[in-house]
Amino acid sequence: MKNNFAVIIGAMKCGTTSLFYYLSEHPQITAAKDKEPHFFSYDSNFAKGMSCYQALWDWQPEHLIALEASSTYTMHPKYLDVPERIAQVKDAEFRFIYVMRHPFARIESHIRHLLSGGHQTTAEINEEHLAFSEYARQLDAYNKIFGRDRLHLVLLEDLQKDPKSVLRSVCEFLEVDPDYQFQRVDVVLNSKQTLNLHPALRRLYKIPAVKSLGRLVPPQVRQKLYEPFSRKEPYEVKLSEEQKALVITQLQPDLMRLKTEYGIDVLGKWGLSLVNSH
Predict the structure, then answer these.
(1) Domain containing residue 158
(2) Cut 0.90: pTM above it
(3) pLDDT digit string (tens) for 58-72?
(4) How many distinct structural domains can be found in the chain?
(5) pLDDT at 195
(6) pLDDT < 70: residue spans in the chain
(7) What is the pLDDT of residues 181-240, one digit of tens each?
(8) Residue 203 maps to a domain
(9) Is residue 50 one of the residues assigned to a domain?
(10) What does the alpha-carbon distance between residue 61 and residue 28 come to, in Å, rounded to a whole number?
(11) What is the four-CA torsion angle of 5, 73, 165, 4, rounded to 10 degrees?
(12) CA-to-CA dists, residue 274 to 55, 107, 246, 266, angstroms
């Protein structure tokens, strides 16, 4: 039975798909057949039991760790008790990778995602946009249950600038060969340029048979096939100065804790100056 798992737990719209794709190349990592199974967040999936979860991987003798990436695992309060459910798994070890990006960019991408999928009609900020950007809050539940040493934090900006260094640090955290030379780091998945699909095609792709067939096609090839079915003009979302002020006001306490408790340089990396921060 597989008992060593690596889970990319989010955050949504922060490069989790690209990171999953890069890591899946590593010969000591077995990637889930369904990159984002949402096993511990969806009640219907969790009810199926661990045998269903184990079936997500084609485990070979050379594999040391099984990888999946479900951004719903850090979507509290929309999905509750995810780390508690993971902690219920007996005789298994979990390690968690959390990817973050500048909150303005994450929220813009989140809104763009909802607009393009027909789930939102205006570019207004709502409570979920803010909640999913409270990185420290989302991390707290995992830190409390599993401890800080089971959490590896990544910034999308670092992954974009120097992917090989980031991948090396992730490999060290996962205890797989850190010297492996990744070859596919030039591919960016789920960008606004490549996932500007019509909502009808998105719904078609969610049909299990179609989704299974799609997995047989390499991601970079699949993106090329998407292009004829994409809108000519992608949704452009840019937060106004008023919206940015709202975001900073709402996220200020969380960003301060992200710096002091999780060591993220929010000023140096994101240019966000925090009131009363030292």
Answers:
(1) 4-102+133-188+254-270
(2) no
(3) 999 999 999 999 999
(4) 1
(5) 47
(6) 1, 189-234, 276-278
(7) 999 888 776 555 444 555 555 556 556 665 556 555 565 555 555 555 555 456 789 999
(8) no
(9) yes
(10) 9
(11) 0
(12) 46, 19, 14, 8
> According to the model, what pLDDT value does residue 184 have?
85
Residue 155 tokens, joined: 């910034």
- The CATH number given to whatever domain includes residue 261 is 3.40.50.300
Please indicate, yes or no, if residue 107 is contained in any of the structural domains: no
Name 55's Cβ contacts closer than 8 Å, sequence gap at least 6. none
Question: According to the model, what pLDDT value does residue 49 have?
Answer: 94
* 184 assigned to some structural domain: yes
> Is the peptide bond preceding residue 83 cis, with omega within 30 degrees of 0?
no
Residue found by looking up tokens 């003798």 in the block:
61
Angle, helix 16-23 to helix 163-174, in steps of 10 degrees: 70
How many residues does the structure list for the chain? 278
Contact 116, 196 (CB under 8 A): yes
Dist. CA 154–CA 60, nearest whole Å: 28
Nearest to 136 by CA among 30, 10, 43, 5: 10
Nearest-angstrom CA–CA distance, 138 and 151: 12
